[in-house]
């Protein structure tokens, strides 16, 4: 027993020693660089030796596009997709194309959706749905909202069908599952700009490219949740299916899929939310709708109107999220044999009745059909004036001016310059040491390979600036978010309130977070960091509260009986036990930060996001993928390392499920 204890106690020590050695070498290299004695080739990888990855990828893409005929095939698909999108656009906002059936009156859509909300979640849900659709119409944003929805109603079902099919295939074939998982990991960490350029090249600028990019972006969680749900089906349930004489297809249709219903519907929720998040961002490739309008308003610094559009996007996101989550928890209804058809489908009949009624009303009452500019209740101009007045208040101007001058000039820029001054080998050694210390040798090797590939990409400095933004934002988010979460976790009431805020904030499309950042800090580094940190703070707060709430009460009671003070309980008992759960929050905060830093390129940065945004103006697909893979490799390094530490810590504490 003592020998085993000695061995296990020496393992972390050897890992720590090796990490310390790597850090010491990195510090030595940096010191030599500062003294001016480090060869240029050790400071930055020589450009002459950087492989032309972008050129190789361009050759590959051109071969696939032209020689294998993919371009011709995607153009044919584009024509088919255009017909579907024209139909949904015609129905929802009246695009003058075949079949010329639209637009459906806004009141008919609002009323039928309110009935659906009532069916899924009762009167509160119905009120939320009705308010969201009425707000959208009354502030004059119905048409642009329906332009966005016309793509979502095509992209979300397509992503669901493809994701469900691939999830079933991955469940049936372990080899396919092993092949698919690393691809999904990369897809989930690729910046959204990397999805946009291929979509534009192969599917034309506009709604078709937007629909394709949105669909591909939303598929991974559907695959993962389908596979997870099918793997969790009880063997006893399957055995009952076999005993009743089910064929393989019947077993899948009537046993496996119904048993995995909850996980599959959680996947549907994720698909819907990712579709909404992505379709807003497709404004960068000419997709009309809420995203394009928001981009235009922010570009012209009309912050009041930007705020109004942002509210609409948030309301739609919250409504779709709540409705899909209500669908997850709602159990299928069962009726006695002989129940009349109309009783079994009363909600459907009420929805159709409301739809038909308001379609008729709209023929006679113009405002029930469409709300024009004259009838609009928009207060965008007044909000513009109010925001300008607020920003001109003395203490507000003094505060934002101080933060721009002090935090930006004295902290952020020097930190960025320091990171850029570190020699490339030293930087890679520091990341490797971090991965070794936290995750182990396997994670250290992955970190070494991944960051070495980033160095070989030729975009090292841009990658470091991207990492600087992520580190700065997550550090500040921890500084503010952790104390808030710890204080809230003391009482059930405040825990519930803050978790509700976090749940709501997580549904906000990321573009919305740029509005307060630009409003307060203009086009500066601090605006970039601010937009990232408020986006990244949500998972930090959420998982810290969850971690502290799951600490066993008997452990806390034992600490109290031993005479521990509140601070001692927190530091020595609660936080150590909550850390594995909190680590998931840190990990998600870093992933969110990598996602948001690319979007913050709109503000004006000098990182990979800015270069990715520039590639959208051309057809440089190879460069686009190289830049995207750089972001993905850095994000995956932290993701794999932190999750490994969390898993190891749970095993050590006996907290595994």
UniProtKB/TrEMBL annotation:
Signal peptide limits: none
MF term (GO), any: amine transmembrane transporter activity
Bilayer topology annotation: Multi-pass membrane protein
InterPro entries assigned: MetI-like, MetI-like_sf
Family: Belongs to the binding-protein-dependent transport system permease family.
Main location: membrane
Pfam families hit by this protein: BPD_transp_1
BP GO terms, sorted: choline transport; glycine betaine transport
Keywords, sorted A to Z: Cell membrane, Membrane, Transmembrane, Transmembrane helix, Transport
ABC transmembrane type-1 domain ranges (all copies): 145-324, 463-642
Coiled coil location: none
GO cellular component, one term: ATP-binding cassette (ABC) transporter complex
Organism: Lentibacter algarum
CDD domains on file: TM_PBP2 (cd06261)
Phylogenetic lineage: Bacteria, Pseudomonadati, Pseudomonadota, Alphaproteobacteria, Rhodobacterales
Transmembrane regions: 21-42, 103-120, 127-145, 151-171, 183-203, 264-287, 345-365, 418-438, 444-460, 467-491, 511-541, 577-605, 625-643
Name of the molecule in the record: Glycine betaine/proline transport system permease protein
């Amino acid at each position: 027993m003592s020998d085993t204890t000695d061995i296990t106690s020496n393992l972390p020590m050897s890992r720590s020693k090796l990490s310390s050695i790597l850090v010491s070498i990195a510090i030595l290299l940096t010191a030599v660089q500062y003294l001016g004695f480090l060869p240029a080739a050790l400071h930055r990888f020589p450009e002459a030796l950087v492989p032309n990855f972008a050129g190789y990828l361009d050759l590959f893409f051109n071969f696939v596009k032209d020689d294998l005929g993919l371009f011709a095939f995607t153009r044919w698909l584009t024509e088919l997709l255009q017909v579907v999108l024209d139909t949904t656009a015609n129905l929802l906002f009246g695009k003058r194309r075949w079949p010329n059936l639209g637009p459906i009156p806004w009141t008919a859509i609002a009323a039928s959706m309110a009935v659906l909300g009532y069916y899924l979640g009762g009167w509160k849900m119905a009120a939320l749905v009705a308010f969201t659709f009425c707000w959208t119409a009354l502030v004059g944003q119905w048409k642009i909202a329906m332009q966005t929805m016309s793509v979502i109603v095509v992209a979300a079902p397509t992503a669901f069908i493809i994701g469900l099919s691939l999830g079933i295939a991955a469940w049936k074939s372990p080899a396919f599952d092993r092949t698919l998982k690393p691809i999904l990991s990369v897809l989930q960490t690729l910046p959204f700009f990397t999805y946009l350029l291929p979509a534009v090249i192969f599917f034309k600028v506009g709604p078709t490219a937007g629909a394709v990019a949105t669909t591909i972006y939303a598929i991974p969680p559907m695959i993962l949740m389908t596979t997870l749900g099918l793997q969790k089906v009880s063997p006893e349930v399957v055995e009952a299916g076999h005993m009743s004489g089910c064929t393989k297809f019947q077993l899948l249709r009537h046993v496996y899929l119904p048993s995995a219903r909850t996980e599959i519907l959680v996947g549907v929720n994720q698909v819907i939310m990712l579709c909404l998040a992505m379709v807003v961002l497709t404004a960068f490739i000419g997709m009309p709708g809420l995203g394009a309008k928001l981009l235009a308003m922010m570009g012209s610094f009309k912050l009041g109107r930007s705020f109004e559009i942002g509210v609409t996007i948030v309301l739609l996101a919250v409504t779709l999220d709540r409705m899909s989550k209500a669908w997850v928890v709602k159990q299928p209804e069962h009726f006695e044999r002989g129940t009349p058809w109309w009783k079994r489908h009363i909600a459907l009949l009420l929805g159709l009745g409301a739809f038909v009624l308001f379609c008729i009303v709209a023929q006679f009452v113009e405002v029930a059909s469409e709300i024009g500019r004259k009838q609009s209740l928009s207060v965008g101009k007044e909000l513009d004036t109010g925001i300008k007045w607020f920003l001109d208040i003395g203490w507000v101007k003094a505060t934002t001016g101080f933060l721009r001058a002090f935090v930006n000039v004295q902290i952020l820029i020097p930190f960025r310059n320091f990171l850029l001054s570190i020699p490339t080998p030293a930087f890679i050694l520091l990341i490797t040491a971090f991965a070794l210390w936290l995750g182990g040798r396997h994670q250290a090797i992955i970190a070494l390979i991944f960051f070495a590939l980033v160095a070989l990409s030729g975009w090292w400095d841009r990658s470091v600036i991207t990492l600087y933004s992520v580190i700065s934002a997550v550090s500040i988010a921890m500084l503010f978010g952790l104390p808030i979460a710890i204080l809230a976790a003391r009482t059930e009431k405040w825990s519930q309130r803050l978790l509700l805020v976090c749940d709501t904030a997580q549904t906000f499309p990321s573009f919305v977070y740029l509005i307060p950042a630009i409003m307060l800090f203009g086009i500066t580094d601090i605006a970039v960091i601010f937009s990232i940190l408020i986006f990244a703070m949500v998972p930090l707060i959420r998982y810290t509260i969850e971690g502290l709430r799951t600490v066993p009460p008997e452990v806390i009671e034992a600490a109290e009986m031993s005479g521990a003070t509140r601070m001692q309980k927190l530091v020595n008992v609660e936080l150590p036990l909550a850390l594995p759960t909190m680590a998931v929050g840190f990990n998600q905060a870093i992933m969110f930060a990598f996602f948001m830093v690319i979007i913050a390129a709109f503000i004006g940065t000098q990182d990979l996001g800015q270069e990715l945004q520039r590639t959208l103006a051309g057809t440089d697909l190879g460069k686009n993928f190289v830049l995207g893979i750089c972001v993905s490799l850095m994000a995956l390094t932290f993701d794999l390392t932190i999750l490994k530490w969390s898993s190891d810590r749970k095993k050590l504490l006996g907290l595994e499920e």
